[in-house]
Write a structure and sequence with these properties.
Residues 1-15 have a biased composition (Low complexity). The protein has 15 helices and 13 strands. By secondary structure, it is α/β, with parallel strands linked by helices. The chain folds into 3 domains: 1-200, Rossmann fold; 202-385, 3-Layer(aba) Sandwich (Rossmann fold), CATH 3.40.50.300; 389-449, Alpha-Beta Plaits. The chain has a 6-stranded mixed beta sheet with strand order 6-7-5-8-9-10, sandwiched between helices. A 4-stranded parallel beta sheet has the order 2-1-3-4, with helices on both faces. Strand 3 (90-93), helix 4 and strand 4 form a beta-alpha-beta unit. The longest helix has 42 residues, at 159-200. Bound molecules: guanosine-5'-triphosphate and magnesium ion (MG). The site of guanosine-5'-triphosphate has 23 residues, from helix 8.
């Protein structure tokens, strides 16, 4: 699917003045507000650094939301002073700002200072890093959806003077949203078709999902076979064979598929984009390749960082389960980074899983993806939960049976016993593949009977 020149106009860039890739040594002040507790700025600071900002100050407030500035007026004024004193390039808010708050803050802070909320910050990270076609379109769609109400707000405020100009921007954004949605739908259809083809070929599909930095890519490396298949998933292929690992939020920005062998079965493992708290649902939905890879898998591994403190662990697990919805396959919880915690802490994390996830989860497995401990057990359990069927055939030892056996070896697991001029075959694979084997074998038998 090629972009036609007519749909090439990227209105999203026309509505923003900041380019996250432009200067790496940008400085920012982070602002966090929480109604119930003293805000923790760890995650917003890590997001800031992933987006290329050096954090020079943090302003926190325990308070309910203020309609005008989100934080209270006094805090907003303090922020304006600190920005002026430090010369910070941006104020990063660890909340979602309404379009009204955004424009009120613009009026209060020194000119040229970027005001960026949590959503926008995550989008900036993705915009800089997303490489694949679907990922780029998804980021664009998320940005357009984010910007639409803000441009509308501006249109309403400046209605008298600039109605024509801003009005056309709203129309541009809306039309681009429809175009991008259509393209993404087509890509999603193709991804669906590809998954169906892979299943017909006898592959089991396993997805690795979880909060950002939980260790998903490390686990992919641990479980994957050394070599990936040629021509696999051309749009998302891990062509250089690396899903990069780093102690940084949102290291992986495209889904990556690798081959693995589990219990003698041929599995396609898909590493997905990390999840994060505080992103609204329609925005999460824009990252549809991640969500559909998980929703449509035969088994999903939800990786959680067991070395997070109990409350952090609970929160990230809750967010992950929430955003993933109900995958069609079995859901296994991987308590990763088990090397960093003692048995007592692991037991406590298990309890949290029980409380938060309850009967949605098939099994909870402590693993260290880094050290490789617990992965044998994980493989066993994955092997057990994948859909499986077995059929037994007694066939004449003919050329046709040999072709059937060649097909069977490519699509599942085969055990063949030769006695006299007969072959006794036990064939195990996905149920639909076993059904096909039955009809193929029936023709072999019938031909012999003639
Ligand atoms: N100690 C320890 N560290 C781990 C383990 N697994 C992963 N890590 C570290 O955790 C950090 C994040 O690992 P990644 O595999 O990049 O995590 P991810 O979930 O793919 O992260 P994103 O792609 O950013 O969402 C890296 O520094 C890893 O080395 C583990 O079992 N034990
Ligand atoms: Mg990763």
């Amino acid at each position: 699917m090629q972009d036609s020149p007519a749909t090439q106009t990227d209105v999203s860039t026309a509505t923003t003045d900041d380019d996250p890739a432009a200067d790496a040594d940008r400085t920012a002040i982070v602002v966090a507000r929480d109604a119930d507790q003293q805000p923790d700025t760890t995650e917003i600071e890590r997001l800031a650094s992933a987006a290329g900002y050096a954090v020079v100050d943090a302003i926190t407030q325990r308070r309910r939301e203020d309609g005008q500035y989100n934080v209270g007026r006094g805090k907003a004024e303090e922020l304006a002073r600190r920005v002026a004193e430090t010369g910070a390039d941006a104020a990063l808010f660890d909340v979602e700002l309404t379009p009204g708050q955004y424009s009120a803050l613009t009026g209060l802070l020194p000119d040229g200072v970027r005001i960026i909320d949590r959503h926008r910050l995550v989008l900036d990270i993705f915009e800089t890093g997303a490489g694949g076609k679907a990922a780029r379109l998804q980021v664009e769609l998320a940005k357009l959806r984010y910007e639409l109400p803000r441009v509308r707000e501006t249109e309403e405020r400046t209605h008298m003077q600039r109605a024509a100009e801003t009005g056309s921007r709203v129309v541009d954004i809306e039309s681009r949203i429809r175009t991008v949605e259509t393209k993404l739908d087509r890509l999603a259809d193709r991804a669906n078709e590809r998954r169906a083809e892979r299943r017909e070929q006898g592959f089991d599909l396993v997805a690795i999902a979880g909060y950002t930095n939980a260790g998903k890519s490390t686990l992919l490396h641990r479980l994957a076979d050394d070599l990936s298949v040629e021509g696999m998933e051309p749009d998302h292929a891990d062509l250089d064979g690396v899903a990069e690992v780093e102690d940084r939020l949102f290291k992986t920005l495209d889904t990556t598929t690798r081959r693995a062998t589990v219990d003698g079965r041929r599995v396609l493992l898909t590493d997905t984009v990390g999840l994060v708290d505080g992103i609204p649902h329609d925005l999460v939905a824009a990252f549809s390749t991640t969500l559909s890879a998980v929703a449509d898998s035969d088994a999903a591994l939800l990786v959680v960082d067991a070395s997070d403190d109990r409350e952090g662990f609970r929160e990230k697990l809750r967010v992950s389960l929430d955003e993933l919805g109900h995958p069609r396959g079995e859901l296994l919880i991987v308590l990763n980074k088990a090397d960093l915690v003692d048995d007592g802490a692991l037991a406590a994390r298990r309890e949290v899983v029980e409380e938060v996830a309850g009967d949605r989860v098939t099994e909870v497995l402590p693993v260290s993806a880094l050290a490789g401990t617990g992965t044998d057990r994980l493989r066993d359990v994955v092997g057990d939960v994948l859909p499986d069927a077995t059929a037994v055939f007694d066939l004449p030892n003919t050329g046709e049976t040999q072709s059937f056996l060649a097909w069977a070896h490519e699509h599942g697991r085969v055990d063949a016993d030769y006695t006299g001029n007969r072959v006794h075959v036990t064939f195990s694979a996905r149920p639909a593949v076993v059904e096909r084997a039955r009809s193929e074998a029936a023709t072999v038998e019938t031909d012999d009977g003639v």
